[in-house]
Design a protein that fits this description.
Helix content: 40-55%
Number of strands: 15
Largest sheet: 10 strands, mixed
Distance between the termini: 84 Å
Amino acid sequence: MDAKRFFLEPGTPLHRQYEALRAYFVDEVSSADVAKRFGYTAGSFRVMCSLFRKNPVRQFFADPNEKRRVAMEKKESKGDRLRTNVVALRKQNLSIYDISSALRREGLVLSPAGVSLILKEEGFARLPRRRDEERPATTRPQVAAVADVRELDLSPRTFRTQFGGIFLFVPYLNAVPLQAMLDEAEFPGTAMVPAAHAMRSLLALKLFGNARHSHIMSHVLDEGLGLFAGLNVIPKRAFLTEYSCRLPAECHQSFMRSWFDAMSRLGLKRGVSFDLDFHTIPFHGEDALVEKHYVSKRSRRQKGILGFLVQDADRRVFCYANCDIRKEDQADEILRFVEFWKSRTGRLPEELVFDSQFTTHTNLNRLNQMGILFITLRRRNRRMLERFRAMEPTAWRRIHIDGISRKYANPRVFDERIELDDYDGPLRQIAVEDLGHDEPTILITNQLRRSPTKLVERYAQRMVIENGISDGIDFFHMDALSSAVPMKVNLDLQLTLMASGLYRLLGAQVGNGYETARSQTIFRDFVQATAQVSVSKKEMVVRFQKRAHNPLLLAAGFAKKDVKVPWLDNRTLRLVFG
């Protein structure tokens, strides 16, 4: 477009009026010529000039800040309205969530956090915790009865339960003197919820892989869950927190020993080689006594509770756990496990496999003097790596290992004897290349005669070790302790040991490869099953729906395991598979 035409031929009425008035008043063109040039009649242009003389303040050009000013005025008006409404609603004793909902019904959107900020600026204190009847009338979830063993209803009836699979564990629990074990370990209980009923309630959630204990509130009306525990209903989340806080730390070690012995009597077989690992459970609260530890999932150090876990390498069952560990005692935890194992089995563990910096050279020497075999990693340093790089290719030899990805099945190894400070005697060091890492993996062991292939194969399972321990941690949800329902870590570890042992017993009885299957696999194939429960005067029948893996349970004899359940008034439990 020609720039000159923009001024001579205005495109909008307002622009045309401006150019016409400017030509008349500034360029002093006659009114007749102006009217003719811009398309006005002579009379209408004279009226326009008269009006402009009376009110020359005419907005011909838009204010660039006008839209912003209008928007700010609207925003301030809306903010004042929100503030006024928030204050008025708080004076009606409404919580920040109630206020946010009330504003939304009026077409005003403000989050509970925004409501809280306004109330804080206005000087309002937090509301005290209110009872349900003090809250505004609205649709609420149905409230379950209070858990009380005295209110257990065993009258004849039939119902469906989402947790039918956990009744597969009742025969094992029935063979364990759980109440006597808890009494010996001084677990507290009440007339409403005895200790054994409390632990069965917590164990039911762990067996079913419940991600957070707060999620129990979604299942409090499931009759099967309460029946498994021997209660009228499963206890609510407040009980779970309160009960874990009542338990003294020393009772867990006592109960762990009793549970270990009970699993052995039930036929849970133990191996001779063990995988040891530390696992940090993140802590998100404020506590000056909580130390920082390395969190592998986040590749950083942060506040957390350090848990020590020992898993049977053959059976993949957790057999020892402890979380009452300070940094200064961390290196000696391996010796405490050795002492525990000897006291329970009468013999020392044959082989321990763990990561680098797990313990000190002094403790490695103690293990060697006790005749315990070990395999661990050695931390690499610059001088060590330069030495390996400078070696002739003929110094390395190629081996073949089984049990790992075919891509890394033929690594190169360099085998030598070394000595370490604070360790008496020779050690064996094996550097391994082409195992999937940029730098060589360096193993040290006191097994001087075992072939390099067998040693590398055993430590190649370290990936499987961590995956196996990770499977237990993920399935039994030990990392979910930062939920709104806090639970002491030592109780959660104890429940993990119990659930792990029961899953191994179930897998061993089913057989067909389930002896070493992941807990998640056993849960998916057998435990995650709905069922119909029929209660009569003499028995309780749990009838499972038709599923692909039911023939394996039938072949394992679960349909013939009729047991009298003491905590259900000695009614006979019968499992039926469709």
